[in-house]
């Protein structure tokens, strides 16, 4: 039996993979709705991440089978402890909404991708594409909120934050933007793309990374300040334990990697126009998000070990499977050479 800290690596990996699969189509939808012409540079690459959904679904099944290993509140409730959990927090209901939710998202996202491919063919096709594109942001927010609540917020019984779903979405979408920038840079520098992405895209993505860095700190501090001023034990305990417990190094590293370094660096135009510097900052944002996901999941009680070896093994496995899934999709769509 894996310790909770080790098992939390699986939960954190699921959140990361799911958000990467979710965010590609979400970005394309938003860029289309605001009329951003540079969407044509990145849309085919971005929607290729849809191919990660099968892996995300398999990981979801494993986590649901894990029961109280994944959801500690199940153990609290089953032992008759006096904790408050909403009536819809039973494992059968949770499993049903998570499975149905992911299947619905996969269907809507697949519809978006298919209609995007033929959107310029006729006015009728363009109208159909516009219709589904309008729905994507709503589905994104609803689904992201659901998984944020089920797999992170409610892990500690009675702990609740009204802004947590939005803060989680902003954080993970910022990670996706950082990943997309690194991905484009690697493909460009290795000359793997059939059609090279133009250099100005790095600056555009860097500006969005800066915006989501500020949004993340705004939502993070809004939540933190509300809890700190309220000074209620049930709310303060979780924050204090993450901040001052066994994972304090990861907590403060998260602040530095997700806010201090990106904000100070991306404010400068010279940084945003230097691809190598933006890639370095993107790496910081991704690592910071990995720390954030793990601390929120594993640090519910502030105790545990940092599973470096297990985390490395799981990460390697996820990267290898994800690489093969995305690469096969890109090759099938003739986006890469060879």
From TrEMBL:
Q: Which UniProt keywords apply?
A: Membrane, Transmembrane, Transmembrane helix
Transmembrane feature ranges: 12-35, 47-67, 87-109, 129-149, 169-187, 208-229, 249-270, 277-296, 308-326
Protein name per the record:
Polysulfide reductase, NrfD
């Amino acid at each position: 039996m894996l310790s909770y800290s080790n098992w939390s690596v699986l939960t954190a990996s699921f959140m990361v993979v799911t958000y990467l699969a979710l965010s590609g189509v979400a970005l394309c939808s938003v860029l289309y709705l605001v009329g951003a012409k540079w969407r044509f540079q990145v849309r085919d690459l971005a929607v290729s991440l849809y191919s990660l959904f099968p892996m995300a679904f398999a990981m979801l099944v494993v986590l649901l089978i894990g029961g109280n290993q994944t959801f500690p509140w199940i153990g609290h409730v089953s032992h008759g402890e006096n904790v408050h959990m909403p009536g819809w927090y039973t494992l059968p209901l949770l499993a049903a909404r998570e499975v149905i939710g992911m299947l619905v998202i996969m269907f809507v996202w697949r519809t978006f991708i298919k209609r995007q491919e033929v959107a310029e063919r006729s006015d009728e096709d363009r109208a159909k594409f516009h219709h589904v594109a309008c729905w994507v942001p709503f589905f994104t927010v609803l689904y992201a909120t659901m998984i944020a609540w089920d797999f992170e917020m409610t892990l500690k019984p009675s702990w609740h934050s009204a802004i947590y779903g939005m803060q989680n979405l902003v954080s993970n979408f910022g990670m996706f933007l950082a990943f997309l920038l690194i991905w484009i840079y690697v493909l460009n520098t290795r000359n793997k793309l059939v059609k090279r992405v133009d250099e100005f895209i790095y600056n555009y993505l860097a500006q969005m990374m800066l915006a989501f860095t500020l949004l993340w700190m705004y939502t993070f501090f809004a939540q933190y300040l509300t809890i700190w001023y309220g000074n209620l034990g049930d709310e303060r305990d979780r924050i204090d334990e993450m901040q001052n417990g066994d994972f304090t190094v990861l907590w403060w590293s998260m602040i530095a990697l997700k806010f201090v370094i990106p904000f100070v660096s991306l404010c400068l135009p010279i940084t945003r126009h230097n691809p190598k510097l933006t890639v370095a900052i993107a790496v910081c944002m991704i690592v910071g998000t990995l720390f954030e996901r793990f601390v929120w999941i594993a640090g519910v009680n502030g105790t545990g070990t940092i599973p470096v070896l297990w985390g490395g093994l799981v990460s390697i496995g996820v990267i290898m499977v994800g690489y093969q899934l995305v690469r096969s999709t890109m090759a099938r769509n003739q986006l890469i050479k060879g």
